[in-house]
TrEMBL record:
Membrane-spanning segments: 43-61, 517-541
Database matches in InterPro entries: AAA_dom, Bact_polysacc_biosynth/exp, GNVR, P-loop_NTPase, Wzc-like_C
Official protein name in the record: non-specific protein-tyrosine kinase
Domain of life: Bacteria
Occurrences of domain Tyrosine-protein kinase G-rich (ranges): 463-538
Domain AAA: 607-764
Family: Belongs to the CpsD/CapB family.
Coiled-coil boundaries: 383-453
Enzyme nomenclature, EC number: 2.7.10.2
Lineage of the species this protein comes from: Bacteria, Pseudomonadati, Bacteroidota, Cytophagia, Cytophagales
This protein's UniProt keywords: ATP-binding, Coiled coil, Kinase, Membrane, Nucleotide-binding, Transferase, Transmembrane, Transmembrane helix, Tyrosine-protein kinase
Catalytic activity: L-tyrosyl-[protein] + ATP = O-phospho-L-tyrosyl-[protein] + ADP + H(+)
Organism: Hymenobacter fastidiosus
């Protein structure tokens, strides 16, 4: 068949005298009829593809674990009871400070830090995962495991190792796992101390252990810190929902909805604890500084009190002469200023020490003035600003070190900025100390002058005044420090976490993925799309004639009629069937063709009809034999000539031998009457092809062929010639030129659409104006609607309703298949 198609296409390219392809194409545009036919033939495949898509969706849902998501909403809203008491100053300003977007980002990083992860591990016992094996998927037994594992692992390789556990009895278990590429198995008792290579285990029962749970298979894994941190990081998401409202959303995804809910709620709890601990740490550092300063001042105050008491006890006097009041007042004022300078000098020394020891870092919640309350005494705005900048740089450096290593460029840049600013602060502090030293020296000179004036006064009064001055100053400082300590203790007692839980985590009811409706929709859409693609591909690859409309659109030849599929029996060779089933649909369709032939050649009593096709197998012999039989049944004398001398088949149709025939007549070995063979129909005879000659074309061109036809005209009304396929040899064209009505056979679902171009080329090249076509072996779709019409006569639809049909044969499946095809 492949060779015949190749030969056919070569002949089609050469036929028609070199006409262009554009001239051959008839009736362009989309063939809706063919498209609908292909679509109907593909309905079963479309249904199968849709079923396949839905089945794939079901399998995906069946073998995919559902993922659940639990969320909570937090609002950063710092509140303190100390603020409600009306405390002002730097503390109140720090408690009322609004959170910015950078601060919210810092809170996000805190929630996702290892600090929170470490607390989660021990508070929720996430270090061991328990699983039960199902028919398809495994399920995690979070909080519902019938056993509990206590472990001590020495070999880190055993972390994240799958330990299989099967209950062998009420208290017996079998444990198996892979260690160093080998499977280790052992049977143990619940509660027993199990010593394994690289680890120790103790497996105990929980209240959920019963007869039903003992029949299941379990396994567990011990997570290391890296694996647990990766699990939390991959499933935890913290997002800033509204920066203006300072709201943060915490979400966690997991295959177990209860586990996701517990983790989110526990994150809220440990975040609260961490924030409280962080704020209390800042307050504790400030209190520690105040208490240290208070302790030093208390010692100095006690010394001053003891000196004053000793003076009064020895001298038994506490009165001051009025004439020294002015000098004493000046000395007191001077001493107060001197004390301020001394305090400044001490504070500068303390700040210098803090700067050198890198302990100047204040907490994230407190300002530098809160950490060093006496900093305002310096009354040096540039220095205070530089210290504040240094404090911020050191704080940022600490934050950066949480996320980066010291070798990173960001850390080194921060360290360089801190070092540069620290040198600037050192110089500023050194200049301030030198200035204070000069001022103190001047104050000392002034004090010496006042003391020289007092030398003329009684020594007792002078000593009394000297003792009272430090006592008053130390007492004032002591009271001021006590007030500060009380304020900070109140702040510490009243401080709460700086966030509210607006929406606590709830247990998710439906998984976020996979979404069943979406998956089934995707499967359905995929099946439909694949079905449409199948239709498109089959339509584009559809290159055979399927119905009479295609035949009408693509060829200029008149269509005589349509012969339906003959499915009463499986014929190996063409046969005469119209005499056996005269009332069948196929007989009626051929009668319609006979009527149409009468319309075309009604003026002639003697007719020569040639029947040809493009290639072998299109049914020209079957049509010739049965058309001849129908014409003969109408009372006309018909003779069938088998001119396909290369592959004779007419004799096979009538069940006779091919010993003599056309070839022997043309070589004058036999006469026409000697070669005529009779059939079961009295008015129907045939002459077989005879032995295959070496030169069939030359025999047809022989004048003897015309003499044979003239002799046959004397005895018969209609001469039917079964010619060779014109797509393979040229004999058929020679005969078609002699015929009154050349008939071209096209077989449905067999003949290529390109064959119709050959018909048009033959008509143009040979001026076959009366060439007619017949669609053979057409199913219901190929003949549907074919009825009355000019040049067509009574159609197939008329006869099908009036005459007997062959009963459907085959199984129900085959009949259903025919219904769709």
């Amino acid at each position: 068949m492949a060779n015949e198609n190749a030969e056919l296409e070569a002949l089609i390219r050469n036929a028609g005298g070199g006409d262009t392809d554009a001239e051959d194409e008839e009736g362009g545009g989309l063939d809706i009829t063919t498209l609908l036919l292909v679509a109907r033939r593909s309905l079963i495949w479309i249904a199968l593809l849709i079923a396949l898509g839905l089945t794939a969706s079901w399998l995906f849902l069946r073998y995919t674990k559902p993922v659940y998501k639990s969320t909570s909403l937090l609002k950063i809203d710092e509140k303190t009871e100390a603020g409600a008491l009306g405390l002002s100053g730097a503390l109140g300003q720090g408690l009322k400070e609004q959170q910015s977007i950078s601060q919210l980002s810092g809170e996000v990083e805190l929630i996702k830090s290892n600090i929170i992860y470490r607390r989660l591990k021990y508070s929720l016992e996430l270090d061991v995962n328990y699983y039960v094996e199902g028919n398809v998927l495994e399920s995690e037994l979070y909080g519902t495991s019938p056993f509990e594992v206590q472990y001590q692992i020495k070999d880190p390789v055993l972390y994240n190792t799958k330990f299989n556990l099967v209950f062998m009895g009420s208290q017996q278990i079998r444990l198996s796992y892979l260690y160093q590429g080998q499977e280790k198995t052992g049977e143990f008792t619940l509660g027993q101390q199990i010593t394994l290579p690289g680890m120790q285990l103790r497996i105990t029962a929980t209240p959920r252990l019963n007869a039903e749970t003992r029949d299941l298979k379990y396994h567990f894994l011990v997570n290391d810190d890296a694996g647990l941190n990766a699990y939390l990081s991959n499933n935890l998401s913290v997002e800033i929902v509204n920066a203006d409202a300072n709201t943060i959303q915490i979400a966690f995804t997991d295959f177990n909805p209860a586990k996701a809910q517990d983790i989110v709620n526990k994150i809220d709890t440990v975040y609260l604890q961490e924030k409280l601990a962080k704020k209390q740490q800042a307050t504790a550092q400030t209190l520690q500084f105040l208490e240290k300063t208070l302790s030093e001042n208390r010692t100095q105050l006690q010394n001053a009190e003891e000196n004053l008491q000793s003076f009064v006890r020895i001298n038994k006097t506490y009165d001051v002469r009025s004439d020294v009041t002015a000098i004493i007042t000046k000395l007191a004022t001077q001493e107060e200023e001197r004390q301020k300078l001394a305090d400044k000098a001490r504070l500068l020394s303390e700040v210098t020490r803090l700067v050198e020891q890198e302990r100047l870092i204040a907490s994230d919640e407190a300002t530098l003035e809160e950490s060093i309350p006496g900093l305002a005494i310096l009354e040096d705005a540039p220095l205070t600003q530089q210290l504040g900048e240094l404090n911020n740089l050191q704080r940022n450096l600490r934050r950066v070190l949480r996320s980066y290593t010291p070798a990173t460029e960001a850390v080194q840049a921060q360290q360089s900025a801190v070092a540069f600013l620290k040198n600037s602060v050192r110089r500023q502090l050194q200049q301030n100390r030198q200035l204070l030293q000069k001022q103190l020296a001047q104050m000392n000179q002034q004090q010496a002058a006042f003391n020289s004036e007092l030398q003329t006064l009684p020594q007792k009064e002078t000593e009394l005044a000297r003792l009272k001055r430090p006592f008053g100053l130390y007492e004032k400082t002591y009271l001021m420090l006590m007030d500060k300590i009380v304020e900070f203790n109140m702040a510490k007692a009243g401080t709460t976490a700086d966030f509210q839980i607006l929406s606590p985590a709830s247990r998710p009811g439906a998984p976020i993925s996979p979404v069943r409706l979406m998956i089934y929709s995707i499967g359905l859409a995929t099946g439909i799309v694949l079905g449409l693609l199948l239709i498109a591909v089959r339509f584009l690859m559809h290159n055979t004639v399927t119905n009479v409309r295609e035949l009408e659109r693509s060829t200029a030849a008149s269509v005589l009629g349509v012969i339906p599929t003959y499915d009463k029996e499986k014929m190996t060779v063409s046969k005469l069937v119209v005499d056996k089933s005269p009332k069948s649909a196929i007989s009626e369709s051929i009668r319609s063709i006979r009527t149409n032939l009468d319309f075309i050649s009604s003026a002639k009593k003697k007719r020569l009809i040639s029947v040809t096709s493009t290639i072998s197998g299109e049914g020209k012999t079957f049509v010739t034999v049965n058309l001849g039989g129908i014409i003969a049944l109408s009372g006309q004398r018909v003779v069938i000539l088998d001119l396909d001398m290369r592959k004779p088949k007419v004799n096979l149709a009538f069940g006779t031998e091919n010993i003599k025939g056309i070839s022997t007549i043309l070589i004058e070995k036999h006469t026409v009457l000697e070669c005529v063979q009779h059939t079961s129909i009295p008015t129907l005879d045939f002459i077989s092809a005879g032995p295959t000659p070496p030169n069939p074309s030359e025999l047809i061109l022989n004048p003897k062929f015309d003499e044979m036809l003239n002799e046959l005209y004397e005895h018969y009304d209609v001469i039917l010639i079964d010619t060779p396929p014109v797509g393979l040899v040229t004999d058929g064209i020679l005969i078609m030129r002699k015929a009154d009505i050349p008939v071209y056979i096209v077989r449905a679902n067999y003949s290529k659409k390109t064959f119709l171009k050959n018909i048009n080329k033959l008509m143009r090249a040979n001026n076959f104006t009366r060439l007619c076509a017949i669609l053979n072996d057409a199913n219901a779709s190929g003949v549907y609607g074919y009825g009355y019409g000019y040049g067509y006569g009574y159609g197939y639809g008329y006869g099908q309703g009036y005459y007997e049909e062959t009963k459907p044969t085959g199984s129900a499946l085959s009949r259903l298949r025919k219904r769709f095809t």
